[in-house]
């Protein structure tokens, strides 16, 4: 889920921080701008792991800052394909289930990656699963007794498998003029790291409570046989 990425950059130290050790000042400066930033095709930056190289600080004319050429390693969030992770259900709709990790909210389970048979497709309703059911349509599923349904509710802790991720690099929108003021059009801008698509379409995936309960029942049966 987390990995290290080597980054080369030029960092500036403000005069107010000249008294601090150089490495501490550089780490503080990097961490000030790095967390929750996205490196395209790399991942979501979390924090500095360490600094591997720092050149000699140089003053540029006109600003008084000390500028350093730095090589450092970042802790980056980017799960690999087929990795199994734990997340929480944030919301549900007819398209699927959106999940959150607390610091990252762009995990999504499309309907095609839910357990079969299909779940409920009602707008904003929690999806559910009926084990060993032969029903195939939403109408049939919605006619089933509530006691037979295993719901995936908001806030539920789920185990999912990562299927794919996507980075986007949206260009700024076209410039428009409103009442004589030039404004950039921002409508429809997507997150730089979005649609981390996940699946629960196999045994052992889905709400953790489902499988924890099944495991406890299996252990109980073994003890009774003993």
UniProtKB/TrEMBL annotation:
The keyword Nucleus applies. It is found in: Nucleus. Signal peptide: none annotated. Its main location: nucleus. It holds the Pfam family RNA_pol_Rbc25. Belongs to the eukaryotic RPB7/RPC8 RNA polymerase subunit family. This is Polymerase III polypeptide H. It comes from Gymnopilus junonius.
